[in-house]
Amino acid sequence: MKLFVYHTPESTPNDQVPECAIAVDVLRATSTIATVLAAGGEAVQVFSDLDQLIEVSETWPSEKRLRAGERGGAKVAGFELGNSPLDCTPELVQGRRLFISTTNGTRALQRVQDSPNVLAAALINRAAIVQYLLDKQPEIVWIVGSGWEGSFSLEDTVCAGAIAHSIVQHTQLPPEKLAGNDEVISAIALYSQWQNNLLELFHQASHGQRLLRLDCQADLKYCSQTDILDVLPIQREMGVLKSQKINS
Ligand code: MLT
User: Fold this and answer.
1) SS3 assignment for 123-151
2) Which atom of ligand 1 is found nearest the CA of 207?
3) Which H helix or E strand runs over 121?
4) What is the pLDDT along the chain (248 residues), one digit of tens a residue?
5) Half-sphere exposure of residue 91, counting CA atoms within 13 Å on the CB side?
6) HSE-CB of 10 using CA atoms within 13 angstroms
């Protein structure tokens, strides 16, 4: 297995498709996706365009759907939900499909959607992602951070580092054997430095600060937890992620 970390969707090569692509948007889209699927949501369908989301979701029975729209960290007017994972309780999401569009996270998923194996990772489901990689041993894996409008974000890179660090621990591979690019080594270093203080790192991150200004302290705290959800969000059809049992 060779692992490549890309800090943003824009920095991924556009003439290649990896065997496995992992989109990361810790604050907060992939944390929300993992939470919805762990809480019994039927699926999560992602859109970059809000109008297209409305159009497609209209074809779905109203009692079986939820619509979430976020721009700049805030809920889009007229949508039932914004992008807070804490709103996605089992009572609300069970058996329903979440149609979601966010500023960066859903774009990252769409950027890698041609890979045969697309996963959504956050810190909260890191262990499930690592287990999948150890079981399936894909040859080339990309971890793609969502960043913020084209630039690097600390929280996505620290999650990439958490995944890489765990693979190194499980396989005993030297990091330079696993790493396909230097970003992997730097992501591991970032995670090694902050692993016991991820919430503090989120408070320093620019998007963490944006969310704090929007009064989302509880979201930061929730998203900074590691390995709390045993859920593997995997793309089943273009743009549609479902939960896969580990080892299946
Ligand atoms: C995004 O897609 O940029 C984020 O998930 C924004 C957010 O925190 O809602």
Assistant:
1) CCCHHHHHHHHHHHCCCEEEEEECCECCE
2) 8
3) strand 118-121
4) 999 999 999 999 999 999 999 999 999 999 999 999 999 999 999 999 999 999 999 999 999 999 999 999 999 999 999 999 999 999 999 999 999 999 999 999 999 999 999 999 999 999 999 999 999 999 999 999 999 999 999 999 999 999 999 999 999 999 999 999 999 999 999 999 999 999 999 999 999 999 999 999 999 999 999 999 999 999 999 999 999 866 55
5) 2
6) 7
DSSP 3-state of 101? strand
Please give the structure tokens belonging to residue 52.
């297209």
Whole-model pTM? 0.97
Beta strands 140-145; 240-244: pairing state? unpaired
Residue 108 sits at φ, ψ, to 5 deg, of: -65, -40
Handedness of CA 212, 103, 107, 5 (dihedral sign): negative
Counting ligand 1 atoms within 8 A of each CB, the residue from 70, 214, 223, 224 with the most, and so the one to mutate, is: 70
Neighbours of 178 (CB within 10 A): 18
The rounded distance, in Å, linking the Cα atoms of 82 and 66 is 11
Q: Residues 65, 104, 180, 185: is their CA dihedral positive or negative?
A: negative
DSSP, res 76:
P
Rounded to the nearest angstrom, the distance between the alpha carbon of 192 and the centre of ligand 1 is 25
Q: Whose CA is nearest to atom 9 of ligand 1?
A: 73
